[in-house]
Amino acid sequence: MYGPAIRLFPEQIWRLFSAIFVHIGWEHFIVNMLSLYYLGRQVEEIFGSKQFFFLYLLSGMMGNLFVFEFSPKSLAAGASTSLYGLFAAIIILRYATRNPYIQQLGQSYLTLFVVNIIGSVLIPGISLAGHIGGAVGGAFLAVIFPVRGERRMYSSSQRLVALVLFVGLAVLLFYKGMGL
Fold first, then answer.
1. Taking a C-beta distance cutoff of 8 angstroms, is the pair 105, 90 a contact?
2. Helix 80-94 vs helix 49-70: crossing angle, to nearest 10
3. Cα(176)–Cα(153) distance, integer angstroms
């Protein structure tokens, strides 16, 4: 994800998505893939395969839109924008579900999320904007996508509001990032 390239060549909007599949070094790749393996299995079990795919992809896109707007000259890559979205989705569900498994998982991930955000602030070269953006995206998407076995966790109007806010924020960040 490289904002100046998108501003110069708007047809390279694909960078907002492709950056979640590219990593900077083996260590970066291995840490993210181990996290995805464990976290991803749990999130897929809760949301189902199709919703998991879109949750992963769209959280990553939102994280990269945050990088595009708030770190405009940064070079960013990696699955962590998507991973933070997955963390945030489970944390948000913790407060809406009656399922004790999801509540416990959400509590555990809340602690891990806070520790990782602190690390994003303290460790140079880590994209705080991308991590926060991925989490914001995942939080909205947790409301939008139904959970297996709990389809009425959020009302239709709550889902619609979350969808409008997600799309509106994405469009706003893109246009502001483009300088329009």
1. yes
2. 120
3. 34
Q: Would you place residue 6 in the very low, low, confident or very high pLDDT band (cuts 50, 70, 90)? A: very high
- The rounded distance, in Å, linking the Cα atoms of 102 and 80 is 21
* Helix-helix angle 26-47:80-94, to 10 degrees: 30
CB contact at 8 A, 161 and 135? no
Q: How would you classify residue 149: left for phi > 0, otherwise alpha for psi between -120 and 50, otherwise beta?
A: left
Distances (CA, A) of 139 to 22, 25, 59, 125: 23, 29, 9, 25
Listing DSSP states for the chain in one string gives: -BHHHHHH-GGGGGHHHHGGG--SSHHHHHHHHHHHHHHHHHHHHHH-HHHHHHHHHHHHHHHHHHHHHHSTT-B--STHHHHHHHHHHHHHHHTT---HHHHHHHHHHHHHHHHHHHHHHHSTT--HHHHHHHHHHHHHHHHHSPBTTBTTSS-HHHHHHHHHHHHHHHHHHHHHHHT-
Residue 70's nearest CA partner among 163, 142, 164, 1 is 1
Residue 180 reports pLDDT greater than 80? no
Taking the model in full, what pTM does it have? 0.93
Lowest mean pLDDT among 56-60, 144-148, 160-164: 144-148
